[in-house]
Amino acid sequence: MRDAERINSLSDLSLGSDCQIVSLELSGLLRRRILDLGIVPGTLIRCIRRGPSGDPTAYMVRGTLIALRSEDAAQIFVRKLSNGEECV
Amino acid sequence: MCAMSPSRVLSEVYGQAECVRNSYLKSFSDQIVADIYGNAEQITKHVLSKKESQRISFDLTIDNLVTSKWFGYPLMILLLVGVFWLTIEGANFPSELLATVLFAFQDQLTLWFQWAGAPNWVHGVLVLGVYRTLAWVIAVMLPPMAIFFPLFTLLEDSGYLPRIAFNLDHIFKRAKACGKQSLTMCMGFGCNAAGVTSCRIIDSPRERLIAILTNNFVPCNGRFPTLIAITSIFIGGAIASYSGLINALVISTIILLGVAVTLSVSWILSMTILKGEPSSLVLELPSYRRPKIGAVIYRSMLDRTLFVLRRSIIVAAPAGAVIWILANVYIGDQNILSAVAHILNPFGQLIGLDGFILMAFILGLPANEIVLPILIMSYLSTGSLQDYSSLEELRNVLVSNGWTWLTAINVMLFSLLHWPCATTLLTTYKETGSKKWVFLSFLIPTLIGFTACFIFTQVVQFFGLV
Amino acid sequence: MILSAEKKNNQFTVALAGNPNVGKSTIFNALTGLHQHTGNWPGKTVDNAQGIYEHQKKSFLIVDLPGTYSLLAHTVEEQIARDYLCFANPDVTVVVLDATCLERNLNLALQVFEITSKVIVCLNLMDEATKKDLVIDVPSLERELGVPVVATAARQGKGLFELRKKIFQVASGSLQPSPRQIKYSSDVENALKELLPLVENIANNTLSPRWIALRLLDGDQSFLRSLSNYLDIDQASFQFQDWEESKCAQ
């Protein structure tokens, strides 16, 4: 497998890097909320900034900034994009 | 089909839908959301074009500053102090002016009552009781609220407030609560009832309840005048040359204590009666926008300031009548007010207060801003609210009634940590729909207040510091 | 439960839907001025603002729905907004979109399109979008969506007259939008085909069978509960318990 194809969790993403959502392993209200905000499989997402203590992290999704806690982001799985692919 | 009741049809169809759903591997609810977004993406692709953008980097630059490790917190504290400074300083003059005008009108009212030949007690209840209390509440409350709420709305509209939640979330996470609770606390500085209502922004019912039950631990506009007056008299006033700075520090310490109690109580609640689903945060950080000043003032005055003021007037008016009656109906040679204070006194002394102070807090249930006036009124037993413009006069009254710095600190502690006002309790009932939570929101701060004052007093007295 | 809008005869009702934070209340205030009153939705702790304005000698009652990201009803706000659109049958629904994040906002608009065809899209915060160097081709958005699109900057008071005009046209029937329907992936469309014949028995004229079928596929119980209320079904005879159980089978 190529490096770019590896599947990570969203919380492992480094600042400024782009990825594509593969699956969400969250449940309940939180899952619905996150889906409704447009974080669905296939969505492109970019890690923008972390809070002063390193958590939560703000992600750029569909033109808006959304902050998630690292525990929750750890349940969202993503595929890193290689440099050529377009994002956000 | 017509013979069947619609309910049968519906539940049958639901059963069949269940079969259809189970015959596919995928979760339809996820697929439906994903498909809707797929359509939205397509449309957007056709109609939207982006130029090389400067503005997004503008947002990013501001965010780099306000959420940075080094500037994020100092900036927040600076804004907090700035808002309070503007509120307190800015309210001074209009408050005095309002008091002068309203109390002057009281004399006019008295003349009219005399002219109409109204009995003394009618004049007492309506003018010295109801009107004087209302005048006090309006003079003390309206100016700070008319400054605080627009400032708050300004921060809200500019898009800064969600950044506070973003910065502070990790602290609330440790208390197993939601970062948005910090925003409801900010609102609580203006008015706890408004703070309780604002808890609607928290999605999870568990975390919302935590925020509602602990909102009272941030001192509201009604309690600030008491805190500020007492600090100025007993602490800041003692070191005259830096009094302004010392006062600000003391008030900030009290606020920080309130925040610490909020976090601890939130944590205890989520470990005990409000155990449940782990907490989470999904927070949108909107773009910064330049607020429309006119709209901000219009909306904050209409929706918040006048709304809160109206509610306080509704509770303060009858309270004024009751207080006047209590102060003017005599049993033997004592009015009811003093009689009750004597009964409460031993208990009050135990927690470093006295009977009159405790009674003032109890009578202040309708609205916290009348606590200090009731207290002065009872000390003087003149039977009506006094407007004490000079702090020196106020200090003399308090000291001659046995106040020490210990009493002063206990009053401030108790002001921060005691039952919520009637309006807040009512709002809590409306929001939670349950008497149980209202009772808890009353009980928790009250217990903490008694305990804190008791321990503090006993320790200070044990070491003979007073 | 939700149909408490105090509608008079000859008055058009206009529902205002939109994501949170898109300037919906600015538009509401700009349209109604001081002719508004606020309360709560019956039995809910969610604000309900209604207001009145006149245009072309016709009176319009505006109902400001709670700001929501979707109508799939996972929160009380979403449920209120959805039930109002489904069952109160407003004459016009205005969906307010934030022009600076069109894609996210279209999610809600497309869902509204599935419920009612009398829709106008109000593309608000155009000034902010311009500042962000975003260019939106409004005529082609109109074509894509199949409904009138009015670009506004409500805080500057721009575009509001045009909005009133379009509301009037749609309410009076002189303009008939045909909103774009969502194309689902093949699995969903196939399942819909299986369900549609069954659903047609329940749906009356006001509700789209496709929408009901979608909610059935969703397993959305809150909608079915509202639907059963609407169809005047005795709650007791309705077997929600079984539903809860059958849901576990997933």
UniProtKB/TrEMBL annotation, chain A:
SMART domains associated with the record: FeoA
InterPro entries recorded: Fe-transptr_FeoA-like, FeoA, FeoA_core_dom, Transcriptional_repressor_C
The keyword Mitochondrion is assigned to this record: no
Entry keyword Nucleotide-binding: no
Cross-referenced SUPFAM superfamilies: C-terminal domain of transcriptional repressors (SSF50037)
Keywords: Iron
Molecular-function annotations in GO: transition metal ion binding
Domain Ferrous iron transporter FeoA-like: 8-80
Domain of life, source organism: Bacteria
PANTHER family given in the database record: FE(2+) TRANSPORT PROTEIN A
Name of protein: Ferrous iron transport protein A
Native source species: Desulfosporosinus lacus DSM 15449
UniProtKB/TrEMBL annotation, chain B:
Top-rank taxon: Bacteria
Keywords: Membrane, Transmembrane, Transmembrane helix
InterPro entries in the record: Fe2_transport_prot_B_C (IPR011640), FeoB_GTPase (IPR050860), Gate_dom (IPR011642)
Ranges of residues in domain Ferrous iron transport protein B C-terminal: 254-300
Nucleoside transporter/FeoB GTPase Gate domain segment(s): 140-233, 314-435
Gene Ontology CC: plasma membrane
Transmembrane segment boundaries: 70-88, 135-155, 224-242, 248-269, 308-331, 343-363, 403-426, 438-463
One GO MF term attached to the UniProt entry: ferrous iron transmembrane transporter activity
PANTHER family documented for this protein: FERROUS IRON TRANSPORT PROTEIN B (PTHR43185)
Protein name: Ferrous iron transport protein B
Organism the protein comes from: Desulfosporosinus lacus DSM 15449
From TrEMBL, chain C:
Gene Ontology MF term list: ferrous iron transmembrane transporter activity; GTP binding
Database matches in Pfam families: FeoB_Cyto, FeoB_N
All copies of domain FeoB-type G, residue ranges: 11-173
Record PROSITE patterns: G_FEOB (PS51711)
Gene3D superfamilies listed in its UniProt record: 1.10.287.1770, P-loop containing nucleotide triphosphate hydrolases
Span of the signal peptide: none
GO cellular component, one term: plasma membrane
Official protein name in the record: Ferrous iron transport protein B
Organism of this sequence: Desulfosporosinus lacus DSM 15449
